[in-house]
Amino acid sequence: MTRFLNKKESLILAIVSFLILVVLPCLNAFVPKESFFHVSDFTINVYGKYLCYAVLALGVNLLWGYTGLLSLGQCLFFALGGYALGMHLMLMIGKLGQYQKDIPDFMVFLEFETKYAETGGLPPHWMPFRSIWFAVLMVIVVPAVVAYIFGFLAFRSRIKGVYFSILSQALTYAACLMFFRNDFTFGGNNGLTDFKFILGADINTPETKRWLFIASGVLLLSVYLLCRWLTSTKFGLIQRAIRDSENRVLFSGYATAHFKLFVFVLSAVICAVGGALYVPQVGIINPSEMSTDKSLEAVVWCAVGGRSTLIGPMIGAISVNALKSWATRAFAEQWLFMLGGMFIFVVLFMPNGIVGLPAQLKALKARYIDRKKSGEEPAPVDATEPAPATKSAD
Amino acid sequence: MKSMFGKILGGVAATMVAFSAAAADTVKVGILHSLSGTMAISETSLKDVLLFTFDEINKSGGVKVGGKPYMIEPVVVDPASNWPLFAEKAKQLLEQDKVAVVFGCWTSVSRKSVLPVFEQNNGLLFYPVQYEGEELSKNIFYTAEAVNQQAIPAVDYMLGEGKKKFYLLGSDYVYPRTTNKILKQYLKLKGIPDSDIEEIYTPFGHTDYQTIVASIKKFAAGGKATVISTLNGDTNVPFFKEFANAGLTSENCPVVSFSISEDEFRGLPAKELQGHLGCWTYFMSIKSPENSKFVKDFMAWLKAPKVTGTSYNVTGIDAKGRVTCSPMNLSRMGVYLWKQAVEKAGSFEVDKVRTALIGQKFKGPAGEVTMQENHHLVNNVFIGETLPNGQFKIIKTFNGVAAEPFSEKFLK
After folding, report:
1. Which residues constitute the domain of residue B162?
2. What is the dihedral of CA A367, A373, A378, A382, to 10 degrees?
């Protein structure tokens, strides 16, 4: 760990992890409700959700910030991961559904009992999802395979830049339309919902939510360390080289398509695992999670937090969503304008997002002092000069 | 570090909540309707009518519990047509704001998304939009039309008109699927053979209805055919255009739509649908003293919107071209039934209110409604013919139809 994290960073990371993984859950579990220090079940639940969004943002950023591939379809993988676990959770409902049948409710109203009579109404590809291990395996395998096929075709044809973004967006939109269809056997528009149990525990109790929060925290920490390690290796260097000038890397003898493919698949798996933990916390997964605006939102989080860093996207995901949660209650009618205005501000004036703010302020201050000193034309210091992107990875 | 940021935000939110709770003699009531996103066009009207109803009640002295009046204080949130956000906002209303009751949801998927939250927190939700049934939660009261209050009367009417062939056309989601499944069984009971029933679904936002209309034309060639439409939203425009182009009219093949009310005609051209039928438990054109008062007061309120007795600031009201429709009326009925139940129970406690709600009667714009033990209403059902101005001419009334969410009970 000390190899790619210096002492100070390790210390900060340890403190933050301790706060999230131990202190917050303890404040929720053991401090009485009346106390000022009590963290409510609601807070734990929504922050668990944000941690999953932060994992998604890390996945997006590994592609965009570090490899220069702007994918506008990463929520497809997030949703696929969610669906894989959701299918298992659906089968765990048992007879507690509205129809009190062995199969999920939507299969009853779609008359699957006659369509798939030989398996008791359950489509054959649903059968193995009774096992949590199979579901967890599928959380990883399905998005990886989809990403591999799409990435292979895209990168082999040297599809880059805006064309890649458009294609990725089309992919997730197509998947969204497909999942909307009831005949596709994944619950159509309603998707999968009304989960009751996870690993035998009641999914709606505060205790379960707390454990899911801790699990999300552990996942985020692991994904962060993985990304941190990866970007500090030689592989990470090539990644950034591809971002900055792919042709040079290509002419230096590197098969850039393979590198990109690997990063794309890895990013898909990261997003998918985030999605899998997201679903039991929000209690629903449906095709609207795959809609293109969701993926765009994830890109916005990265931009707000600061891309080209690992901390930035996490801060972006959590802060934008916390702001959204708060504003949709406090300013139910105006919150869209607030958020939209903030995004425009960030794009126009904060190219390095929240994490780039200190450096930007420093530069502004330097310019101000310069101008005062000389009393002449200000020195041409560009306030929007990108913060050294490699700093955090060195 | 990042969690600190959230804590600060959470803290700000909590202080605001604590601050507003300090005002005495109010009861918090949640409104959970999308004010942005795809559903905003429908759901904003429900938010408006709920605020209007709160104002109406507050003006006449509020909700009286134990001889003490409580002003209804709205807590409006925006779940933004985002289904997981619906669950989060429901949680926020119940756990943070501790509202006494929530009025909300439009789509079935939003209701399915919040249902576990209401059951976990023992909350109370009033759901005002026609739906597929096959659900009964002790924490939800469904003021909406069940299938046997909309689809079945419409089909009965068509059978009475001598129609023998039924083309079931719908958008591909749970409400059309379930409704049509029930209708097929019902039609079979009425002696319509399978060969005279067609069933087809199109995706959301579908625009190409050429093939479908051609098949309807063939289907309707012998006469005595009708289309039962559960198409949703915008897709109705290309469908009805194509329908008219193919030479089909309300004379040779009438269409009954279950998802188009007066409010939808603010966005759809009513001329294209002229003569086709709608079926609801309320129409704006109903002639009753209660209805003319409701419509008149609502229109006046839109021009000067406020919620009397609270500091709630009403914003974002569009007063132009407004109408009333069935989901709006049912939202309002829900508020009045809840008020009566609270006053009867002498408490805002959910368990007591739930018991008191059963058997509550209220005389509304469309006649008297009664809350049944199955959490659904006994209500009057009307069939209306679409007029070019987006209103309906009532051509048939079924009095006192008791809603039954489970189809096996009325398909005997």
Report:
1. 148-284+381-410
2. -20
Partnered with residue B171 across adjacent β-strands are: B202
Q: Name the band, by pLDDT with cuts 50, 70 and 90, for residue A377.
A: low
Q: Tens digits of per-residue pLDDT, A160-185? A: 889 999 999 999 999 999 999 888 99
Nearest to B82 by CA among B28, B36, B146, B41: B36
DSSP codes, A351-373: TTTTTTHHHHHHHHHHHHHHHHH
Do B216 and B331 fall within a single domain?
no
> Are residue B206 and residue B347 in the same domain, yes or no?
no
The partner residue sitting opposite A333, judged by closest CB among B16, B135, B316, is: B316
Contacts of A49 in chain B (CB under 8 A): 84, 88
Q: ∠ CA A169-A173-A176 to the nearest 5 degrees?
A: 145
- Helical (H) or strand (E) element with B83: helix B83-91
Q: Please indicate, yes or no, whether residues B293 and B277 belong to a single structural domain of this protein.
A: no
- Flag whether B13 is in a domain: no
Chain B partners of A52 at a C-beta cutoff of 8 Å?
Answer: none
CATH of the domain at B212: 3.40.50.2300
Nearest-angstrom CA–CA distance, B332 and B363: 12
Q: Indicate which of B89, B112, B132 best probes the interface with A, i.e. most A CBs within 10 Å of its own CB.
A: B112
What per-residue string of b and e applies to B143-160 under the rule 16 or more CB within 10 Å gives b? bbbbbbbbbbbbbbbbbe
Nearest to B315 among A110, A330, A333 (CB): A333
Q: For residues A354 and A306, is the Cβ–Cβ distance under 8 A? A: yes
Q: Are residues B82 and B107 in the same domain?
A: yes
Q: Please report the beta strands in B95-134, taking only residues with DSSP state E, as ranges in sequence order.
A: 101-104, 125-127
The pTM (predicted TM-score) of the whole model is 0.89
* Domains of chain B: total: 2
What is the Cα–Cα distance from B124 to B117, expressed in whole angstroms?
Answer: 10
Residues B81 and B161 in one domain: no
| B8 in A contact zone (CB under 8 Å) | no
Residue of B31, B81, B83, B131 for testing the chain A interface, max A β-carbons within 10 Å: B83
Nearest residue in A to B33, CA atom = A332
- Asked if B360 and B389 sit in the same domain, the reply is no
ipTM over 0.85: yes
Is residue B10 assigned to a domain? no
Instruction: Measure in Å the smallest separation between the Cα of B226 and chain A Cα atoms.
Output: 24
The answer to whether residues B252 and B366 belong to one domain is no
Q: Is residue B402 part of a domain?
A: yes
Kindly state the tokens that stand for A137. 């395996």
Residue B328: inside a domain, yes or no?
Answer: yes
Transcribe B211-262 into DSSP letters: HHHHHHHHHTTTS-EEEEEE--GGGHHHHHHHHHHTT--TTTS-EEESS--G
B13 touches chain A (CB under 8 A): yes
User: How is residue B252 written in tokens?
Assistant: 């040779």
Subunit contact A336:B117, Cβ cutoff 8 A: no
Partner A contacted by B316 (CB < 8 A): yes
**Tens-digit pLDDT string for chain B (412 aa):** 444 444 454 544 444 444 444 445 899 999 999 999 888 888 999 999 999 999 999 999 999 998 899 999 999 999 999 999 999 999 999 999 999 999 999 998 999 999 999 999 999 999 999 999 888 999 999 999 999 999 999 999 999 999 999 999 998 888 999 899 999 999 999 999 999 999 999 987 788 999 999 999 999 998 899 999 999 877 888 999 999 999 999 999 999 999 899 998 988 888 889 999 999 999 999 999 999 999 999 999 999 999 999 999 998 898 999 999 999 999 999 999 999 999 999 999 999 999 999 999 999 999 999 999 999 999 999 999 999 999 999 999 999 999 999 888 887 6
Note whether B288 contacts A: Cβ–Cβ < 8 A: no
Domain identity same for B298 and B359: yes
B302: DSSP letter: H
